[in-house]
Amino acid sequence: MLLKYVNSNRITVIVLFLLVPLLYWIPSLVHLTPLEPAANDVTFGKWISVFSYKYSGLASFIALLLLIVNGYLLLQLNTVHFFIPYRTQLPLFFYLLLTLSINQLHQLTPALVASTLIILMFYRIFHAYKTEGISLNFVDAGLLISLASLFYFPAIFFFPALLTGLVIMRPFIWREWVFAIIGLLIPYGIVFSGYYLLDIPGSELFRGMENTFTHVSRSLRLSQVVNWSYILLFTLIGSYYMSKAIDSMKIHARVFFEMFLVFFLFSVLIFLLVPGSGMPMVYFVAIPLSYLFSHYFIKCERNWINELFLDVFLLLFIWQRIM
Fold it and tell me: What mean pLDDT comes out for the span 88-117?
């Protein structure tokens, strides 16, 4: 019954999906412990961290709103490009389940702001998919990754994912590769110019980049370890289901899901290989996983096994809040 209910487009489903994050977030607002600005914050990230530390209550509320906005953007991305062939609220549902599951991140962080820019990047590159001739969208895509990295430097490593997406989505047009690189360089050129005009040593920016490779704590509670173990297991199940279904998809949907796969793999690699990435990588991993899980629960059979899969998602979600 739950599977059928969350797959519907009734107004009560939308209200529930918006109400649950608020209720889940309230204890974090009540027992809020401001995060000290991190040593590995870069230019714009420092501003976010300082604001979050000084105005922790307001910043935490803004973070919740931004998570909901991100979920809405994911819904609209499917509405525009229709790679999941149903009007569904499930991407919002799973995105919020995944991102809210780390209680330690219930504050405004540079990584959360950067993840919004990465979602906007998908809008630009997907719009370029059917463009005839040369597309300037890759200037925007490179620029968005660059801006994201000025909030949360590990986001810079999504640029190779963008170039991989160029191989997957487009015929080889060397100008588009140049456009992507130009987009990547523009924000850094502006920042360095600003540092020069304000007589700020450029080493300040490089120091933040270097600190990204300094190890940060990644401690999780038992409930979170169990939950993310289940998410990993279901990622394998969903991926197997996707591999069987992908040949029957429309070409554009197949290409877009291949792009999400590339993005997911890069997210995992960044988490494993960049010591300073930390738990905020959840914001980025949640983007492709929300679509993978949504695809599974939309296309799967309505039987007791799949009902149980969804029930376990919710039970673990609630358990984390209690524990």
Answer: 90
Nearest to 148 by CA among 98, 108, 188: 188
Region of 192 on the Ramachandran plot (φ > 0 left; ψ -120 to 50 alpha; else beta): alpha
Task: State the pLDDT at residue 36.
Answer: 61
Q: How far apart are CA 105 and CA 63, in angstroms?
A: 9
Which residues are CB-contacts of 112 (< 8 A; sequence separation ≥ 6)? 63, 66, 67, 105, 280, 283
Please give the Cα distance from 284 to 263 (Å, whole number). Answer: 9
- Give per-residue burial for 163-199: e unless 16+ CB within 10 Å, then b: bbbbeebbeeeeebbebbeebbeebbeebeeebeeee
Torsion sign over Cα 305, 318, 5, 91: negative
CA angle 25, 30, 34 (to 5 degrees): 90
Side chain identity at residue 145, one-letter code: I
Is 246 within 8 Å of 259 (Cβ atoms)? no
CA atoms of 173 and 184, how far apart (whole Å): 18
**In contact, 175 and 166? CB cutoff 8 Å:** no
Nearest to 293 by CA among 313, 272, 270, 279: 313
Buried b (16+ CB within 10 A) or exposed e, 234-257: bbeebeeebeeeeeebeeebbbbb
How does pLDDT run across 267-322, given as a tens digit for each residue?
Answer: 999 999 888 888 889 999 999 999 999 999 998 888 888 889 988 988 888 888 77
Enter the pTM of the model: 0.92
Distance CA 155, CA 193 (A): 22
Count of C-beta atoms within a 10 Å radius of residue 320: 21
Q: Alpha-carbon torsion 31, 37, 39, 40, what sign? A: positive
